[in-house]
Write a structure and sequence with these properties.
two-stranded antiparallel ribbon, extended, alpha+beta, 7 helices
């Protein structure tokens, strides 16, 4: 009698497990109250919870991937459309040399922005998938600042922006200079787009962290945008055409991989970005 009852309950348990495997989230197995079957039942319930959690994560990942692809497509389509229009203008035989030169410069700028966008997206993808390799070595902060600012020498000069750097040669942190230069460069790019005529970089160090503060004298960051500016693809209401919403997101991703943090706030002068590299003891 007991054997027959056990067989029936095991058969019912088997049926419930099969329903769970086919996506029925309403089942909570509570058939046995004691003994070895009770232990087995608890293990099955734990496995069920884990499977449902994994399924939920996979669903979120798929949704995120679909949204990301839509955002990337939109951001590439905009400069591509502009480029197509410029190429149409350039094909006109009635253009004079001045007009042709202006359209050519605009097309070159669009191609440059698209190249930067694709490069940034590839870097984000590498970090997302865990294939990005970060060095773990001593980096001189002064060398980092030099490497980060060099690509912006011409834009700073053309826009009459003064760059003030206060960085002691003795300061250092443990990380990857190439990836970190990318992160700092993205902050500088943001400051150049929003400052009036001044960008300052101040570096300090204490027993806990090495700090880099990059500030500008622009209008600052809108209060509604401030909590979101490091979010991927986020662009505020007053964003510029060069803002794709990924530069600062990439910056945070890079720094978070190196035991570092970054935050943004407003000062009396303008926007301020604070980077902290926390000390490690294994080098």
């Amino acid at each position: 009698m007991l054997i027959g009852k056990s067989k029936k309950m095991i058969a019912e348990l088997n049926g419930q497990i099969d329903r769970i495997l086919h996506g029925d989230d309403s089942i909570d197995i509570q058939m046995f109250k004691e003994g070895e079957m009770y232990i087995l039942q608890n293990q099955i319930n734990k496995m069920t919870v884990r499977l449902r959690e994994n399924a939920s994560l996979l669903k979120k990942d798929k949704t995120y991937l679909a949204d990301s692809l839509a955002d990337i497509s939109h951001q590439l389509r905009t400069p591509m459309t502009s480029l197509q229009i410029l190429l149409t203008f350039l094909s006109k035989s009635t253009l004079n040399e001045t007009e042709r030169a202006n359209y050519s410069r605009e097309a070159e700028a669009l191609l440059s922005r698209m190249d930067w966008l694709l490069s940034a997206l590839l870097k984000i993808s590498k970090i997302d998938t865990g294939t990005a390799v970060f060095a773990h070595e001593k980096v001189k902060v002064s060398e980092l600042i030099k490497r980060s600012t060099e690509p912006f020498a011409i834009p700073l000069e053309l826009q009459n922006i003064e760059l003030k750097i206060n960085c002691d040669e003795s300061l250092s942190f443990v990380g990857d200079i190439n990836w970190t230069a990318e992160a700092v460069g993205n902050i500088l790019k943001n400051c150049i787009e929003h400052t009036r005529n001044l960008i300052e970089i101040n570096c300090t160090e204490n027993a806990i962290y090495t700090e880099i503060i990059i500030s500008d004298n622009g209008a600052g960051i809108d209060k509604t945008d401030l909590p979101h500016i490091f979010e991927r693809f986020y662009r505020g209401e007053n964003y510029s055409e060069n803002n794709y919403g990924i530069g600062l997101a990439l910056c945070r991703m890079i720094l978070s991989k190196q035991n570092a943090t970054v935050k943004a706030e407003n000062s009396e002068k303008g926007a301020k970005f604070i980077i902290k590299f926390y000390k490690v003891t294994d080098l």
